[in-house]
């Protein structure tokens, strides 16, 4: 019951703080859908209060150590592709479940990650092509968005999807280190 109330409260807060454009008003929140259908919806991993995936300004992060330390043990580690709910750029409470590449640790409970997409971004300096992998059951090519950094709570991760091989990870790490001046861990 408290999960339903939390979902409804989150939806109401989003409605009160979101942009009032007609396009956004027409979008239904999960809480609105739950109210209309009578369904109880549990928050998606990465969306629960205190465990939500948060967008972080990479230009304000000075002490990130980009490392490679995958350990397929159920915990998110640098070098692993994990799935979590990721907020959209608009910051209006909407988002989607997607793969992210863990690049370093923020705290015992949180890791830094960059989002991944299967949408082609050839020639875009903010996206690095990394090919396909076990994180995508359709075996589509993927790109890493080196402009968008996220803080992912360890309990906000839905699942481990794959370990990115060291060669591809090092290409991503080099792009991030060159762009932001972070250290290699």
Automatic annotation (TrEMBL):
Any single Pfam family the record assigns to this protein: PemK_toxin
Keywords, sorted A to Z: Toxin-antitoxin system
Disordered: region residues: 16-58
Compositional bias of kind Basic and acidic residues: 49-58
Molecular function terms from GO: DNA binding
Entry annotated with the keyword Thylakoid: no
Protein name, per record: PemK-like protein
Organism in which the protein naturally occurs: Acidipropionibacterium virtanenii
